[in-house]
Amino acid sequence: MRAAVVTGPGELNVEVVARPIAGPGEVRVRLEGCGVCASNLTPWAGPEWMEFPTEAGGLGHEGWGVVDALGEGVDGVEVGDRVAALFYKSYGEYDVGPAENVVKLPDALADTPFPGEPIGCAMNIFRRSGIRAGETVAIIGIGFLGAILARLATQAGARVIAISRRPFSLEVAKDMGAAETIAMEDHWQIIEQVRALTGGSFCDRVIEAVGRQWPLDLAAELTRERGTLIVAGYHQDGARQVNMQLWNWRGLDVINAHERDPAIYIQGIRDAVAAVADGRLDPAPLYTHRFALEQLGDALNMTRDRPDGFMKALVTF
């Protein structure tokens, strides 16, 4: 099979390697594609802790495809089932992993790309956020995750204020139901705009979905007294500071909405499958760019640079 191997910072090769073999309790999936996750960007940049070369297919974890082999003792999954797979070497034509880490895709999603992990992540963050009808919710950062959260929050009856850097992403936020949009340009101007939009009380809940220091600072400023700040951004490039004086004074509840239990990840993917299959959620317009496996480097660079019109890249086989 063909699989991508990252050989150094910003460098990769596509190599021909042996197909993995499904061991006991495992399934092998012939992949149709894999989403490109922003969490790949730190390893792609080559920090000191990163070891090269990666395993064949390494970093890819948003795969979907068709089960083509079963290991011993597998129940509930059959060869030929189309699934979303939470495996971790999915930048290749095949990947293998625990049978409990695949979720069947119904006929309603036939021929539909389905990078299950990021949609499932959004479902889990939304659940952890506890958003209720009538609340005002600010979402800072409208990428793929922020856009889906805007849709889910709007469907829950919340008023969404979307804050993002790119005009394109603010248009996407409107399409996903945001009632108000604000360009992420000037810190104090944003605070004053939100103050005016909320009658001076600020937001019941604020979701930070960028993963940088400034948006985290801004999120606290926009959260009302006894409100809830939800950290959804992926903060993996260094330490962060928080304004504890402000957090204390306003009595904020703070939720780190990342999950680490694989079973919860998989439940999020199940919830995502149900939401897309019954029409509550349509992520298809957010898949703005598709690449061949040999173009994975371009896909990663575009995910980093986020040019106009970009929301999420898929690598398809």
TrEMBL record:
GO molecular function, one term: oxidoreductase activity
Highest taxon of source: Bacteria
Protein name: Zinc-binding dehydrogenase
Record-stated family: Belongs to the zinc-containing alcohol dehydrogenase family.
Keyword list, A-Z: Metal-binding, Oxidoreductase, Zinc
Organism, as annotated: Jiella pacifica
Alphabetized SUPFAM superfamilies for the sequence: GroES-like, NAD(P)-binding Rossmann-fold domains
Record carries keyword Manganese: no
All residue ranges annotated as the Alcohol dehydrogenase-like N-terminal domain in the record: 23-85
Required co-factors: Zn(2+)
